[in-house]
Amino acid sequence: MLDPRLILFFAAVLFSAGVYGVLSRRHLIMLLMSLELMLNAINIMLVTFSRYWAGRSAGLVGAHSGQFFTLMVMAVAAAEVGIGLAIIVAIYRRKHTADADAMTDLKN
Amino acid sequence: MSDLFNYQNPAALIWAVPLLPLLGFLINGLFGKRLSLASSGGVASASVVGSFIIAASIFIYTLPNHDVVSNGYIWMGTGGFEIGFRLLVDHLSGLYMLIITGVASLIHIYSVGYMSHDESYARYFAYLNLFVFSMLMLVLGDSLVTLFLGWEGVGLCSYLLIGFWFKDRKNAIAGKKAFIANRVGDFGFMIGMFLLFWHFGSLSYSGLISHAADMASTDTTLLNAACICLFVGAAGKSAQIPLYVWLPDAMAGPTPVSALIHAATMVTAGIYMVARLNFVFVHAEVAMELIALIGGATALFAGTIGLVQRDIKKVLAYSTVSQLGFMFMAVGLGAFHVAVFHVFTHAFFKALLFLGSGSVIHSLEHSLGHGNPDSQDMWKMGGLKEKMPITMATMTIGALALSGVPLFSGFFSKDAILFTAFHRGDVLGYLIYGLGVAAAICTAFYSFRLIGLTFFGKWRGDEHAYAHADESPRSMTTPLIILSLFAIGAGYLWLPPAFGVHHPPFAEWLAPTWAAAQAALPDGNHFKFTTEHDVGAEWVNIIISSVIAVGVSVFAFMVYSKPEALGKLKKLAFSGEGDEVRMKPLYKLLLNKYYVDEIYEKTIIGPIRIASDVLFVVVDVIVIDLVCVNGTAMLVKASSDLGRRLQTGYVRHYLYAFAVGMVILSGLFLLIANQ
Fold first, then answer.
1. Does B96 have pLDDT greater than 80?
2. B582-583 and B574-575 as β-strands: parallel, antiparallel, unpaired?
3. Which of B188, B19, B159 is nearest to B101 (CA)?
4. What percentage of chain B carries pLDDT values higher than 70?
5. Set of chain B residues whose Cβ sits within 8 Å of the Cβ of A23
6. What is the average pLDDT across B387-408?
7. Of A86, A107, A53, nearest to B645 (Cα)?
8. Cβ–Cβ below 8 Å for A23 and B659
9. Do B655 and A22 lie within an 8 Å CB cutoff?
10. A96 CA to chain B: closest CA distance, Å?
């Protein structure tokens, strides 16, 4: 069986890549993609925990709740991407740029 | 509604007495600009006359010894402290209520004629109605707090009416002076009130009077302190030394106002308050002696100033101060009923004299122009009896009553005061008696000086004005005639025992007011009313005062009504010839009112002004404006300049902070968890 620590390490690397992307990228779409990366890293973790540590005695639903949660996160992420992309398109139409640093309308 | 028509108990009806003038005030105050003189004056007069009729019916109801307490509500209530908002008509307040509404009715009617040439008549009537309302609240309230409400109300109306012609700066200043002098008194009054509350835990008359029996054993220092403080308030309102200075200046207001507020009603509020609290005052020996002395001193002091004044209203103003002094003499000697009797008679003859002087002024202003000081200068009058016979006759009656000429009302009340002092039989009594007799001499002198200078002799002013002088309209002379009847008759309600009257209706009527205090006094106390009468001493006293009153009146009249005597008089007052005419020192001292205003200016007002300037620069400009207000603003600005830098507006920066914070927090968590 695969060592769960290996999978968790992979998820941590994926999450860090996402954080780095959010902090370093200026393009809104890149930000959104980095966010997706972080969400999926979390999903991997949830599935791993569920698979290796959830007790059998918790019953059918209890034993698989981590995996159900993953499905939930994916659904929410899909909705988020839908709204996020729509906002980005709207902003681009207005400002002709998708640079996050240009979004300074509330300053001063 | 059924209460309103319940003749067995007119409790609900009492409210109509003060509320009718308030309604008049609202109508005139809100819609006055759209009302004609007739309707404005009509509304004001009708509301006061209506109030008088209701007051009279309630008064008749209370005659067979019923007190009436109106319905009311709890105005302030916290824990054991409770102030009700109720009206109380007992014998004392019932009498005052009648005097106020009665005299005010006549003066309202008079004012319709007097103010006919003034454009602000609606404002005038609104203020006058508001005054009547406040004065009624003052006397009808059933606690010291309601009294204080009216007390402040009449002070406000007095201020508004003194400064009625506020376009003239000196009138506005006179109003301000009255208000400030009264505030000084009010401060004392409030402290007195707090002292009473502190010790007795109540401010309602019924609550205080329930302690009447154990006041004899109460700490006299406290009672004296409370009574002196209350008297300071009374001295402010009733113009006694040292706070009398505002009353002569109050003559800047329209003359009917002087008659109503500054002679007949408001200035007697101090007497009312002391008489109302007689059960406290009788146990404060020191305070009573002080009151008697100040009363006597004021009576003589103001009387001497009145001797030389040229302004007809100023004479009457100083006369009022002097007469109020007489009332306080009586109060200080424990003869509260005599003081109230003098209030009663004085209200009629002094209102009469003021209205008469108003009639003269009104007539002369036609040709001299409004506000011309010549229209009030007695040395520029004379011989007006031909032109204004009714005014002359009624004013003479008023002067006879004021001088205390036998069988006129003032004689009986003033004589009763002097006899009280005489009868006391100790040093204080004789001192007060001496002051009183000296003041009575002044009174008789200036009264007939006024009559002689104004109505007799030769006209000394502008010929044109004399030609146009004419008797005032009937709306003004009718109140004069009615008041003169009272000036003659009011005294017959209390004939002295020497006349064989042992149960005078006036004294009997007021007896319940003093019952509680009298019951608490031990036998032989100064302030215990005696039931035996020393008829012999009384006759002596009556003869002395009659001789003084008649003798001095006749003398003054002879001197001032003859043109040739006036020339000789000038030699008494002036020395030197031609350009070097100088006033003799005594005349100068009296004419300048003993320089009291100047002394106050130097010793009190000047230092206060300097202190205020210092405070203005140091406290207001530097501490408050610079340090507190602007300093706070600068501090906020500087600190927000620092905080502002944190908010760059870049999402990235917030995320950095977020991530760094996250890392630090997780690190801390791990550190703690591993220990």
1. yes
2. antiparallel
3. B19
4. 97
5. 652, 655-656, 659
6. 93
7. A107
8. yes
9. yes
10. 18
Residues in chain B closer than 8 A to A107 (CB atoms): 648-649
Q: Are B650 and A101 an interchain contact pair (Cβ–Cβ within 8 Å)?
A: yes
For residue B411, give the amino acid letter. F
CA distance B84 to B673: 68
CB atoms within 10 A of CB A13: 11
CB contact under 8 A, A23 and B652: yes
Tell me whether residue A70 is in a domain: yes
Measured CA distances, B150 to B132, B269, B273, B355 (Å): 10, 10, 12, 25
> Does a structural domain hold residue A107?
no
Comparing CA positions, the residue from B451, B408, B181, B414 lying closest to residue B315 is B451
Is residue A92, in this structure, part of any structural domain at all? Answer: yes
- Report CA B157 to chain centroid distance, whole Å: 11
User: CB-based contact (8 Å) between A38 and chain B?
Assistant: no
Helix ranges (H only) for B562-629 are 563-573, 585-591, 596-600, 606-615
- Rounded Cα distance, B300 and B314, in Å: 16
- Yes or no, beta carbons of B649 and A104 under 8 Å apart: yes
CATH of residue A65: 1.10.287.3510
Interface test with A, best of B640, B641, B645, B650 (most A CBs within 10 A): B650
Residue B425: pLDDT band with limits 50, 70, 90: confident
Distance (Å) of CA B302 to CA B159, B176, B320: 22, 22, 8
The string of pLDDT tens digits covering residues A45-73 is 999 988 887 766 667 777 788 888 999 99
Q: Give bridge partners of residue B125 from the DSSP assignment.
A: none
Domain residue ranges of chain B, discontinuous segments joined by +: 1-142, 239-557, 592-644, 646-675
Task: Quote the number of domains for chain A.
Answer: 1
How much is the ipTM here? 0.75
Range of the structural domain that residue A93 is part of: 4-102
Residue A8 forms part of a structural domain: yes
**Chain A residues in contact with B659 (beta carbon < 8 A):** 19, 23
CA-closest candidate to residue A88, choices A77, A98, A78, A80:
A98
Q: What is the mean pLDDT of residues B642-670?
A: 86
Distance from CA of B652 to the nearest CA of A (A): 6
